[in-house]
Design brief:
This protein has 532 residues and is mainly alpha-helical. The chain is 68% helix and 1% strand. 51% of the residues are buried. The structure holds protoporphyrin IX containing FE and copper (II) ion. Copper (II) ion (CU) binds next to loops.
Length: 532
């Protein structure tokens, strides 16, 4: 790295930064570190599952710790911070014409709380009694387990406080710091999606906070909230946990689909279809209904019989606003002059993966069917499609889309496209077969070994090969970004020809304060106006 670059990278500046763009980059570094480590866990699990009998470990507890860290780090350490930490922090002020967020120091604090959560989570690999309680932390096992439940609880609490601080900041920023002329119906879809995600965080994070504090009180102070033998009930925990964790999937979905909207409108050179229906029906419809479907995670956990049909109905109902979000995207493509650059390839991949994920969610909503597929590979196959891999497609596509703005450099399109093709093939082999093994053979999830299911051994092996293709894709993607950072050509100011404010009114990379002069928007300004 050149001395000039070394001079650019002053650690002290990054540690004490309150610039939203730099805080965003810190979130990106943290979330990709979590993705890398949780990805290593995934590869260890898949390698272990590639054949019957011990492959790389003969200790089931070790597999459980891999599974715990994988699930917890992927959701809390990678996806939520990448979308609501990096993309929201970087884009929102630039898209609304603001110099920074409303509370820059609180913004820095929210990152360092998250960072402390990551450090705590990494202790999983250091402490003698690593947590093995799954990312759900279900009692009674999480109370009686020899594993260190406190690490789990405090990691969740730190991430929770970070999200709450971030939510207050971003919502205040959008409400109070829009440039003159930036009226509500001119906001980028991504900004609306981020607002929806943060409203959900502010409403529901306190619930998981309370749940993990009650776990601590039960395990370390001998209370009995969840101890059935002493009149408590573990089902209470499951209710409180999912009352947050289902809305949490929309905290991931909304900013992810918001990114796909920005990419699609730009590369289709088209106005967003049904803008008001998408915003007020789709985004706020999801927010409104996301708190009344949590029970579908408890269909087989002693839920009151009168509640099951209601939850079945609400879970089916939420596919209406989600459908509006998908229709809005397809409508934006309609009659567009689509240019398939790497970000648009990832957006197309998102369409396919999210559609498969959404459709395979319908049988899960139906309690009579769910009770048969609960606990099989169908469930992790489904949520990897609808959340894990769909959102990861949006994150990677989003990084390629923002790359010239963020760095002032252009990445190599061929490498970009190669990474996408490998990722798409690998993801569909891995999670398509995972779903198939669940539906066709009833292969149970969370099993370290499967000697009693010899008929799936070949499929398990191919599934593992699929995950190695994902690994190869990840290497190609990382190489393409590093190559661009180190040796990439200087990019044009607005290489995609986007009409959105961050591309039209600010240079690449944007300086502190973002805009050379105060942004004032004409009445006919629109972030998706490709007619001119
Ligand atoms: C990138 C490639 C990935 C691979 C190969 C992979 C693989 C796996 C495997 C093998 C399991 C265990 C299945 C079982 O035995 O029950 C699993 C569980 C899980 N994965 Fe992934 N995964 C990947 C990405 C992700 C991502 C991006 C997320 C983000 C949310 C994620 C979240 C989860 C969760 C929440 C579980 C459930 C853990 C549990 O059962 O408690 N995974 N994954
Ligand atoms: Cu759910």
């Amino acid at each position: 790295m050149s001395t000039r670059a070394k001079r650019g990278f002053r650690l002290k500046e990054w540690i004490f930064t309150t610039d939203h763009k730099r805080v965003a980059v810190l979130y990106l570094a943290g979330s990709f570190t979590a993705f890398f480590l949780a990805g290593v866990m995934a590869m260890l699990m898949r390698t272990e599952l590639s054949s019957i009998g011990p492959t790389i470990t003969d200790n089931p507890a070790t597999y459980n710790t891999w599974l715990y860290f994988h699930g917890a780090a992927m959701i809390l350490g990678y996806l939520i911070p990448a979308l609501t930490g990096f993309f929201a922090n970087y884009y929102v002020p630039l898209m609304i014409g603001a110099k920074d967020v409303a509370f820059p120091r609180v913004n820095a604090l929210s990152f360092w709380l998250y960072f402390a959560g990551i450090v705590l989570a990494l202790l999983t690999f250091v402490v003698p009694d690593p947590p093995d309680i799954m990312w759900t932390g279900y009692p009674p096992y999480s109370i009686f387990s020899p594993g260190n439940t406190a690490l789990y609880s405090f990691t969740v609490l730190l991430m929770g406080f970070s999200s709450i601080a971030g939510g207050i900041n971003l919502l205040t920023t959008v409400i109070r710091m829009r440039a003159p002329g930036m009226t509500w119906n001119k906001l980028n879809i991504f900004v609306w999606c981020t607002m929806g995600a943060f409203v959900l965080q502010l409403l529901f994070v306190p619930f998981i906070g309370v749940a993990v504090i009650m776990l601590l009180l039960d395990k370390y102070l001998g209370m009995n909230f969840f101890n059935a033998a002493a009149g408590g009930s573990a089902v209470i925990y499951e209710n409180i946990f999912w009352f947050y964790s289902h809305p949490a999937v929309y905290v991931i979905l909304l900013p992810a689909i918001g990114l796909i909207y920005e990419i699609t409108a730009t590369f289709a050179r088209n106005r967003v279809f049904n803008y008001k229906g998408t915003v007020y029906g789709g985004i706020w419809g999801v927010v409104a209904l996301s708190g009344v479907v949590w029970g579908h995670h408890l269909y087989v956990s002693a839920m009151p019989a009168w509640l099951t049909p209601i939850i079945t109905f609400t879970t089916l109902l939420i596919s209406v606003p989600v459908g509006l979000l998908v229709i809005g995207l397809l409508g934006t493509l309609y009659r567009g002059s689509i240019e398939f650059k790497t970000p648009m390839l990832y957006a197309s991949g998102f369409f396919f993966l999210f559609l498969i994920g959404g459709l395979t969610g319908i049988p899960n909503a139906l309690s009579a069917i769910y009770s048969h597929i609960h606990g099989t590979y169908w469930i992790p196959g489904h949520f990897h499609y609808v959340m894990a891999i769909s959102a990861t497609t949006a994150v990677i596509g989003g990084v390629y889309y923002v790359f010239p703005k963020l760095t002032g450099k252009q990445y190599n399109e061929t490498l970009g496209k190669l990474g996408f093709v490998l990722f798409f093939i690998g993801a569909n082999i891995t999670f398509g077969l995972t779903m198939y093994m669940g539906a066709a053979y009833g292969m149970p999830r969370r099993y370290y070994d499967y000697a009693q299911f010899p008929e799936v051994e070949r499929l398990q092996y191919i599934t593992t090969l699929g995950s190695y293709i994902i690994l190869l894709a990840a290497i190609v993607i990382a190489v393409s970004w590093l190559h661009a950072l180190i040796a990439g050509k200087k990019s044009e100011e607005n290489p995609w020809g986007s009409r959105s404010l961050e591309w039209t009114h600010s240079v690449s990379p944007p300086p502190p304060g973002n805009f050379p002069e105060e942004v004032r928007l004409a009445d006919d300004w629109d972030p998706y106006d490709y007619t001119k």
